[in-house]
Amino acid sequence: MSKLKHTALGALLLLATLGANADEKLRIGLMLPYTGTYAALGTAITNGFKLHVEENGGKLGGRAVEFFTVDDESDPAKATENANKLIKRDRVDVLVGSVHSGVALAMAKVARETNTLMVVPNAGADELTGPLCAPNIFRTSFTNWQSAYAMGHEVAARKRRSVVTLTWKYTAGQQSIDGFKEAFEKDGGKVVKDLNLPFPNVEFQPFLTEIAALKPDAVFVFFSGAGAVKFVKDYAAAGLNKTIPLYATGFLTDGTLEAMGEAGQGLVTTLHYADGILNPKNQSFRLRYAKAFKSQPDVFAVQGYDAAQLIDAGLAAVAGDVSKRAELVKAMESARIESPRGPFVLSKAHNPIQDIYLRKAEGKENKLVSVSIKALADPARGCRM
Ligand code: BEZ
């Protein structure tokens, strides 16, 4: 082949590739629970993510989006296979997930091995932005430590000296208890007993009997989703809400107050979101979400919405070209996300630095009481990046 023909062919091939990329849809893999105790959380994250894509004319970073969805059932044993399906079979450009810390830890391992860009829209496993932090792993939610740590200070400030903790025995529960204890015991409190049961069991009766016998000043728990509803109702049915105040991170009461009914009223929690945050972004987000999905948004919807915003910010900087990974990551790292929770930036470990709010359940809302800790950054212990 002559040199001229060779060059012309090369130019044609280049144009064809560029054209194909520009037209090709951005492949987003949503690996979330759509069944089981966390089903409502997975749905809210999906809705929030899609709401932002919709607002953007169906695009992220200028590219039309195609979704690939897997129900991960909050089952860590199935997580590696599910993540591989999305990455190898569906060839997703970005892996988004999940809710359950154990599932997300397995996903992150696959994402690291395959160098897939991953955005965590809920799971709080401290390791994801701690010892397992990586340039390709981002989170738009929280660490398990963050809001539990704030609640440790709040309970101590209320002069509760002895606390019994109760949770599901898995990463999120254990790390929430650790975060709570760190602040509570620093302020002079004492955790007198840690109780737990396997995820996602809801046979709470023996634990309620034990709590009644121990008579602590307060109880701190981590539960979420359908299991949280059952726990709060059982706590009230046992009459414990009259004698021993119950405290928790806001995962207990977000998206669950309607189902809890009377039993949920007055519960005080800490979280990086509250229903009545008065910023224009939150107000318009809540209106648009309610219109689109005929339900009220919660923290999970916010985290999904912000995952889409973060990906959009990264992709916009490279005109949708995911092959420009270094530039894309840099843009995500320096993004300021205008979240309904209030604006936030990411820490060096890729976790939101955010205000933690004190909230009180009233009617169907987790009403904002005050800012418990301003701009709280996770300590990111063990992250070398
Ligand atoms: C978690 O497993 O990390 C988690 C699940 C539900 C709510 C909050 C955290």
What would you say this structure looks like, in words?
This protein is an alpha/beta fold and 385 residues long. The chain is 43% helix and 22% strand. The chain has 12 helices and 15 strands. Strands 7, 8, 9, 10, 11, 12, 13, 14 and 15 form a 9-stranded mixed sheet that branches. A 6-stranded mixed sheet has the order 2-3-1-4-5-6, sandwiched between helices. Residues 38, 99-101, 122-125, 144, 172, 224, 251 line the site of benzoic acid. Benzoic acid is lined by residues 38, 99-101, 122-125, 144, 172, 224, 251.
Topology summary:
Layout: H1 3-23, E1 26-32, H2 39-55, E2 59-60, E3 63-71, H3 76-89, E4 94-96, H4 101-114, E5 117-120, E6 137-139, H5 144-157, E7 162-168, H6 171-186, E8 190-197, H7 205-214, E9 218-222, H8 225-237, E10 246-249, H9 257-260, E11 268-271, H10 280-293, H11 299-317, H12 325-333, E12 336-337, E13 344-346, E14 352-362, E15 365-376
Parallel strand pairs: 1-3, 1-4, 4-5, 5-6, 7-8, 7-9, 9-10, 10-11
Antiparallel strand pairs: 2-3, 11-14, 12-13, 13-14, 14-15
Helix pairs in contact: 2-11, 3-4, 5-6, 11-12
The structure holds benzoic acid.
